[in-house]
Specification:
489 residues; alpha/beta; three-stranded antiparallel β-sheet
């Protein structure tokens, strides 16, 4: 009886144990969407989070929060385009303020400021008093050079929270860009007294130093930011940019052994001024004045110059095609443009007079493509002068990630050490019109493009002149790719 009883108990125990395993396994595979979602929220591992949120979506394809949370994880791991797709899906299911905020912040990181602004506005219609969203909207407006609008937002926040550091820093940036430099700097200094490690305030101060060409203080302040956060890529890029400009000036003024412009047998110039835009604010007659005056100057320097004004897309392309065919094996080529322009993802664009918005990016003229074409014509020296804004606004269509038409010049062009590109302003900034018949940059260039100096020194002197003329609000940028300069004579 004893043995039988023992066998009976064992018989009962084994099936029960198996049954528990089966039940446990069944529960694991029948988790609800909410249970999978909760697991994703609770875990700290990003890969696990993604798996859990995907399981939640598999159980419930309309689970908006699961799409959103997966997008948040992907955004943190720099997979921005995938994240935007997930945020868009979440919005299509349920239009919540936080979904619009998440997509807007990701678009901002991609520098698609117009679309980011649209999403911040959509968020604020659902949650009008969200200070974080209001501040992000103000920051986006600053990037779009809409400083008055951004200032109104920051002032409203400061009425409620007078010591809101982010609002104070944004206000300071607006004031500096609206020529109220002393007031703006005073605010930044007050913020830094209270919060010496505030990266936004430090960055604003560094950018100001850079604008007034105080490179030592600019570098020191950017270095201070990196000491606080060594992953701040903007500060690292700024230091690299300043270092490069300092190296470029090691031989400034030295003309010994350099070729002279008068020695070049074949030298050509194309000067373009666009003013009469169909769908953009006109620029009065300044771009046309600029193109004509620059053409006269280069003609006196012995350059075979032609001038074109108010070119639509077809006219622009035809003129460029004709010019590129004409200059093959030339000693020097000078291309000048005044009119509307913008920069997106490191590429700079000139805008034909018939441009419509929003339109496909292929209907703009890429500066980098012009440079590439001229380099293919075996031109010895290429000088491009761009008196146009480089801010991104007016509903421009973003460049698709799969754009392959510019891969050969996507990065700063280094295919040949024979080019010099003089921009009227920094990346992301506007170029001023000035109070004379010429724009600020062209007016300064006409004074400084003189005989007896190096071509690169002429543009450096122009940069200093523009800073003075604009009250330190406009800083030209020179992209120098010449292994050897030449003398204007």
């Amino acid at each position: 009886m004893k043995t039988y009883k023992h066998f009976y108990l064992s018989f009962l125990t084994i099936p029960t144990y198996l049954l528990l395993i089966i039940l446990s396994t069944s529960m694991t595979y029948s988790q609800t969407a909410q249970e999978w979602y909760d697991l994703g929220i609770d875990t700290g591992d990003n890969k696990q989070k993604i798996r859990y949120f995907e399981n939640a979506i598999r159980e419930n394809e309309n689970f908006a929060m699961a799409y959103y949370q997966k997008g948040v994880v992907l955004s943190k791991t720099f997979k921005y385009q995938e994240a935007i797709g997930l945020f868009s899906t979440a919005i299509s299911i349920e239009e919540r303020a936080e979904f619009y905020d998440a997509r807007a912040e990701t678009l901002f990181l991609l520098k698609d400021y117009p679309k980011a602004l649209t999403d911040f506005n959509a968020s604020l219609t659902r949650n009008p008093n969200n200070k974080k969203t209001l501040l992000l909207k103000a920051t986006t407006l600053i990037e779009l050079t809409k400083f008055e609008d951004a200032l109104n937002i920051t002032n409203n926040i400061l009425k409620v929270e007078p010591l809101n550091t982010n609002a104070l820093t944004s206000k300071a940036n607006c004031l500096i860009n609206l020529s109220k430099v002393d007031e703006g700097l005073s605010i930044i200094k007050e913020v830094l007294k209270r919060e010496p490690r505030n990266q936004d305030a430090l960055f604003s101060m560094a950018k100001y130093y850079e604008r007034i060409n105080d490179k030592a203080n600019a570098k020191s302040t950017y270095a201070q930011i990196l000491a606080i956060n060594n992953k701040n890529t903007k500060a690292a890029e700024a230091i690299s940019r300043i270092d490069k400009s300092e190296k470029e000036c090691n031989n400034c003024g030295d003309i010994s052994g350099l070729p002279k412009l008068s020695q070049f047998k074949r030298k050509y110039g194309l000067m373009i001024g666009n003013s009469a835009y169909s769908n953009l604010n006109g620029l009065m007659s300044k771009p046309i004045n600029d193109a004509n005056d620059i053409a006269k100057l280069f003609t006196t320097l012995g350059v075979d110059t032609r001038t074109s004004t108010n070119l639509d897309l077809n006219g622009f392309n035809n003129k460029l095609n004709s010019f590129c065919n004409e200059v093959e094996n030339a000693d020097a080529v000078f291309l000048f443009y005044a009119g509307h322009g913008f920069e997106k993802d490191g590429l700079n664009y000139l805008i034909p007079t018939d441009a419509k918005f929003p339109i496909d990016y292929q209907n703009y003229i890429k500066i980098q493509d012009i440079l590439y074409r001229l380099q293919q014509k075996n031109v010895k020296y290429i000088v491009m002068i761009i008196d146009a804004c480089r801010s991104y606004d007016r509903g421009f269509v973003p460049i698709p990630a799969n754009d392959t038409t510019v891969k050969h010049v996507k990065v700063t062009p280094n295919a040949a050490s024979n080019y010099y590109i003089a921009y009227a302003t920094l990346s992301g900034e506007t170029a001023g019109n000035g109070s004379t018949k010429n724009g600020i940059y062209t007016a300064a260039l006409l004074k400084n493009l003189v005989r007896g100096i190096r071509i690169d020194d002429a543009f450096r002197n122009t940069r200093t002149e523009v800073l003075n003329m604009s009250g330190n609000l406009q800083l030209p940028e020179n992209l120098e790719g010449m292994s050897k300069s030449f003398i204007i004579d």
